[in-house]
Amino acid sequence: MKLLIIIGLAAVWCDAAQWQDRRFPDDFRFGAATAAYQIEGGWNADDKGESIWDRLTHTNPDFIADRSNGDVAADTYSNYRTDVQMMRELGLDAYRFSIAWSRILPNGISSKVSDAGIAFYNNYINEMVKYNITPMVTLYHWDLPQKLQDLGGFMNPNFHEWFEDYARVAYENFGDRVKHWITFNEPREICYEGYGSDTKAPVINATDIGTYYCAKNLLIAHAKAYHAYVKDFKPKQGGVCGITISVNWVGPLTDSEDDRLAAEIKRQAEWGLYAEPIFSEYGGFPAELCNIVAWKSAEQGYRRSRMPEFTDEERTLVRGSSDFFGVNHYSGTLVSATHYKETHPVPSLLDDAGVGVYNPPEWPQSASSWLRLSPNSLYYALTHLDTKYNKPIIYVTENGWSESPEDGYYIDNGRVEYFRAKLNDALDALEAGVDLRGYMAWSLMDNFEWNQGYLERFGLFEVDFKSEYKERRPRKSAFVYKHIIETRVVDPYYEPDSLTMWIDDGHYFQSAYYNNQYSSGPFSVSYN
Ligand code: GBH
Fold this sequence. Notes:
The chain is an alpha/beta fold. The chain has a single domain, classed as Glycosidases (TIM Barrel, Alpha-Beta Barrel), CATH 3.20.20.80. The protein contains 18 helices and 17 strands. It has an eight-stranded parallel β-barrel, surrounded by five helices. A three-stranded mixed beta sheet has the order 6-8-9. Strand 14 and strand 15 form a beta hairpin. The chain is globular and about 65 Å long. Residues 504-508 and 510-528 have low confidence and may be disordered. Ligand GBH binds at residues 35, 38, 185-186, 189, 199, 246, 328, 330, 369-370, 398, 442, 449, 451, 458.
């Protein structure tokens, strides 16, 4: 008995010593992320053009669970200075946000540049730079100008010309201060969800070829924008340009060879389709999936594979076209070659992959059906990429946890637990030698969660969408994250006692959580 107690104590003490010694390097960049359509509002402010999400939410409100839209959202268009105060209070090293293409090029093409749009992003960026917060800019986070969609959008083989021109306008105007560029956020969601199925704008649902043709056109557009930067801007501006791909962990259900192969096929279908052409040594689409689609296409009576080919010139253009690998990571899943198969449209990406997926019910569930706390998933994903693609520089560009507006709310312990778990994964990956340079929490604040409207909340800061000024209040997770950034250590026991944050223009954020007590107000918050 006595011996057991001593062993128990030793385990606790040793554990304790471990977390204190596990520090993020001083130059590791902690940040938070958002996207234009999800926070900005001002959907038609000044001369902004219509995007595919404006069109979808206005013409088909039932597409969104609560029939809401991003017309106003968190109104960052008016509140951007408040946003930067929130970043400053958290002590962020970096902030990842996206530019709304149709805000700076109302028609999508480069003939007309909006002065108001350029001014808005200049102000936002200058405000960050003032407080030493590194801006990390995503050029495309799903809000294509509707005019370009009318011309086929990502299905148009000349898409790369429109995108390169847009990228150049952004580099020219903001590149003196922005040194981190991300061309696309999540090609899988753009291509599979937008063109290959019917869950995101523009809801094309071309299940047979939508995903694959979009993938090719997107990759060429990415590469053109990358090379434009390297050739004409990087020499003077000295920044880096990369892409962000959603990499959830996909592991085999059992250790059998069939399950391991099934998991590899699933990884190729989920993100290899976009990562392989850029980060692998040879380039081009992933071999196994490419073969499957080729023989299935032949069997299905197509005269050519539904997966288009790269010419040698295109393959070389795309290969190596990224200074870093941006990873959006949320969850994990287990894959079986034989079990848990569902029926999918034939032909389609999921039918081509033809595997079953299983999510263990004991993995904690967030408010989003697809998001569970999958043990060590970020560690598995990062070490896998490190090995597969020969040690790329990696940034985690999104990682976060949703709760419904009812549960948790200010005392968001589920989110705290999730962030701690994933940041421990990040520390494990660093120890394993992964070249991980930064981590962006999703999200700085509650925002328009696409199909789920305002029903799933990801924010470190709550946004009161019913209030006139879209008031922001920090949740417990904001204080825990702030403490992690300050100390560079993930303290599993840290409990914030006072949750008040001050901002420097005389107004302050009063949280509803104070001295471990929940209170419902009143709040003295006013902005602008
Ligand atoms: C990210 O995508 C996005 O970049 C970001 O804009 C978003 O707010 C954030 O996640 C949180 O969702 O509805 O079951 O068909 C993460 C990848 C892919 C996760 C689409 C949700 C929908 C699955 N997302 N998926 S389902």
